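Changelog-linked ticket: PBG example.
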Amino acid sequence: MAFPIHRKRRLRASDSMRRLVRETWLEPAQFVLPLFVCEGDDVYKPISSMPGQAQMSIDRIVKECREVESLGIGGVILFGIPAHKDETASEGYNPDGIVQRAIRAIKQECKKLVVITDVCNCEYTSHGHCGKVVGNDVDNDASLVWLADAALTHAQAGADIVAPSDMMDGRVVAIRARLDGAGYTNIPIFSYAAKFASCFYGPFREAAESTPQFGDRRSYQMDPPNAREAMHEMQLDLEEGADMLMVKPAMAYLDLIRAAREQFPVPIGAYQVSGEFSMMHAAAEKGWIDLERVMIESLTSIRRAGADIILTYFAKDAARIL
Ligand code: PBG
């Protein structure tokens, strides 16, 4: 007979008691803040659907990174908004492109901050798809060349980690081969391995100006109902040489974070995406939810599910509270 011998409330009686038996902790070092870098000088262009987030020019990004570093946040992930987009995503792999210049500037000022780059074509193509469009679809193998070229230019500029997010087959091995061939054997690949064709990316596409001009991304990003397939994607990326795996979005895919944690030995990241962030803000603005508490509770749930690293737009706010 469990009761009255067991009374679970004993260990919940006070803040100190709850703290003593807490199973899951958040640390700023586990957070990665996504940043959007654009051309210009002293540009700070707020993203209306993502409160507190903005497109920033390189000088402002460097300032932001100093603050991020001083808060003890683990790292940043950079997304570029080029002045010029074309069919071949050429600014994505331009050694003097917006992201490549931003990396150099950040690395000069913030020696300790881990700088991750998002490797994808969609911000750089005029049609907004993640690769080379042939007919009505994205040609897989032709797109790999651009991705490998982009990853190499990021590494050459000083990126610490490259993170491919396009969901083409074989991009991890293509990037690994290109990096190794140029002597960048020590640059890790953080693969967006289980990335779903999710409607939670809506606000990001405004932020990164990367909405597909026709069709959608369902022929390359994963179908949300599929869990076994996600495990296979992650396994294949590990075989191709991924050093870290990511599940994206986070909150609607906590089961996969847990499954990945149990099955794979490498660090697991989860991306709390723009839609998750903006929904919480919107509800808070209406007075329906407490923003600070929902932020911490949602981040905690992602850690409890098993993520080591969380990419989150809340990184600075959460780090200040912790
Ligand atoms: C792009 C990319 C996307 C996100 C990160 N990298 C958008 C997409 O695939 O459409 C989404 C991030 C977010 O919603 O916060 N390649």
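Closing comment: Example verified and attached. The chain has one domain: 25-321. The pocket of PBG is lined by residues 118, 120, 122, 130, 165, 201, 204-205, 217, 273-274 (CB under 6 Å).
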